[in-house]
Please model this.
Amino acid sequence: MAITLTEKAADRVGKFLAQRGKGVGLRLGVKTSGCSGMAYVLEFVDSTEPEDLTFESFGVKVIVDPKSLTFIDGTELDFVREGLNEGFKFNNPNVKDACGCGESFNV
Model:
């Protein structure tokens, strides 16, 4: 069981945390949403819960709740630039189908 960040993603999250001036890491989770069923949720974490699982890549912590881990185990979070757009890309080996806009997925 693991969640990883690429070096580019870890660098970007580290910069966000530094600009923010606080936080222990980034929470990665899922919620029911979109046309395919689930959507990723990213948010900064100032404190963790006892049941949280913590993964670390390139010095950046990723916090995941056990329920979300079922759907995102093995995911690699990358930060990509495509033309004028940039953002996080989820390389999730559990995805069976995704909507055309890329906002939601199902497993």
In short: The first strand starts at residue 4 and ends at 5. The chain has a mean pLDDT of 87. The beta strands are 4-5, 25-33, 37-45, 53-57, 60-64, 76-82, 85-91, 97-98, 105-106. The two ends are 16 Å apart (CA to CA).
